[in-house]
Batch of 2 targets.
Target 1
Amino acid sequence: MEVAVIGAGVSGLATARALKSSGHRIVVLEKLHQLGGTWLFDPRVESDPLGLDPTREIVHGSLYNSLRTNLPRQLMGFSDYPFPETENGYSGDHFPSHGEVLKFLNDFAADFGLFELIRFDSEVVRVEQVNDRWLIESICSNLKSEETFDAVVVCNGHHTQPRVATLPEKWPGKQMHSHNYRVPEPFEDKIVVVIGEGPSAIDISRDICDVAREVHLSSRSPNVKVSKLVFRSNMWQHSEIDYVKENGEVVFRDGALVRADIILHCTGYKYSFPFLKTDGIVSLENNRIGPLYKHIFPPKLAPSLSFVGLPYQTVVFLHIDLQAKWVSCVLSGLKLLPSKEEMLAEVEEHYRQMEAKGIPQHHTHCLQLKFEYLEWLATQVGLEGVCERAKLISSSYFKFAAENGLWKAKDWKPGNGIKESLLCVD
């Protein structure tokens, strides 16, 4: 089949490799000048630091200079292409830098002959089904072109469009989203409120506290312990923001009050597919893309349209690798999808279970670090057992993080009862 892959980040590269291995003819359309997607560092920031102005020039990347992975390198490889230890310029650090991850992706593309499949500087602006083929309109060097394909795999990532907390516009200080954070120097001698409790909030807070006067973390979690953080003299943990004042004061629900210079939103991202035209068959509502069978195939358009890389809170590279291999198997006829009706029924049942458990709609694609989905994918592509090593390592890592807090998560080291043979990647 003639297949278009949109994006040359982790998902696009894994998908291109899987499709190429199955003999399909592939074009990878990448709007940037080189591969890497999320892992390509771009020092530029957007004109609107909150990322809300629809007329702004969008910067795709969200990396900051000091970023290292928040999964150990033993979990950063594909099922059959592990992340190297110390050979060929790799550091061997348990949590690699973003530069090492980009090197890994370039090595992967070179080893599997993917560069020749990628059209760089090609921005996709329209994807639409026309007469049982997919019409793709793209722009390269200010020139528009159209071509058709048998199938399209969307791999454009989901760390570009910021999701922000709602605060009154009357607050006079500066607000920005972590998407536009690069280095700590602009925060020197500032009083900063960081909204969020995930890895980016903790990582960036730790990055800026060396130069900021004060850093105050705000969490909406009901279990948060309001306290001064003992390992940093200028950091405090607070509950959710209650309200803000025109004089610059920020008031927390715990009763604390600070006069802040900057509010930094580490509040995650939204999915975005502005190029995709499906007449409502695929919708995006409250960060739920649907309906999608197994987070990949829209039943009414399957198998010719698919998405790879949507789920989060998972072992990302492994799950992307398995998704890509399954899409390739389906497009090759090696695996058959259920009927459209059966797929829709399963999606609706998933939604009902989420509602019964009280899981918000915007967490539809959150896997909550559970392995059932990955194990199902592995079975589909004939790789039963491939998840066992990842389960052992991740259970050790997340147990350590749960017992010691996310602040200490990167103090984790291999071992902790795991056989060294399971940790070895050669």
Note: Confidence is low (pLDDT under 50) at residues 417-426.
Target 2
Amino acid sequence: MSGTRGAGWVAAGLVLGAGVCYCVYKLTRGPRRGGRGLRLRPSRSAEDLTNGSYDDVLNAEQLQKLLYLLKSTEDPVIIEKALVTLGNNAAFSVNQVIICELGGIPIVGNKINDPNYSIKEKALNALSNLSVNVENQIKIKVYVSQVCEDVLSGPLNSPVQLAGLRLLTNMTVTNDHQHLLTNYIPDLFQVLLMGNGGTKVQVLKLLLNLSENPAMTEGLLGAQVDSSFLSLYDSHVAKEILLRVLTLLQNINNCLKEEGHSGVQPTFPKGSLFFLLYGEECAQKMRALINHHDADIREKVTIPKI
């Protein structure tokens, strides 16, 4: 009897091992050639992962195998491809829930510690897709501080920096976790000023989320920001940037009114964003933009006044 039971456990182990081997084979050989649309597939995970492409929408059983593989392997090539597959599947709301329920968030989250920048980027992309689900953000928020550090210390304009900024932007769509970024606001403005066009846009998306929350207004206005920030209000600045910095000022102005600071001189340190936005130089730039050739720009112009 015990011999039969032992044989059964060995057979079960071989089946699980075979499933993982199929996952490894699928990931190492890469996607099949030829464009195919997204589609749901039958629940035969080993065969699906072997024969499908990265565009396949995996079911719960397949995702569980993929997560097990991601947790157990140390092969960087397999890790990266597994993260890409998970990230693609996390773009679908049903899989955002399934991956979370399978314990996938900490498995993916641990990979942002990887010294391999390509793996770190893929992990951040996967977390970014998972964070679209607000319930998932409760588990993802533990990584916010580290992501901020990576964004600020990593190579400027790098894929890792942009992936981190996208994740932080998703995490600040609601007000629930915005306070976690308070201490990083001055450094985010520094990235804004130093980054290229794409980085500037992504930082501004994040700052715009914060600027809509009255609870974050003081942290924004009190941040030490270089005076070169005002150059973003010049008429020749790219529209996608200029519109966002104008909206930033508009949001902050509205929050001050909402908080009852209209007509009251708030106390902020010199060199802060407050002194830049509510100084004469900014007012002059706003008056110049009133005559901007683009109607969308003209519509967003706000003359800052306390």
Note: The beta strands are 39-40, 56-57.
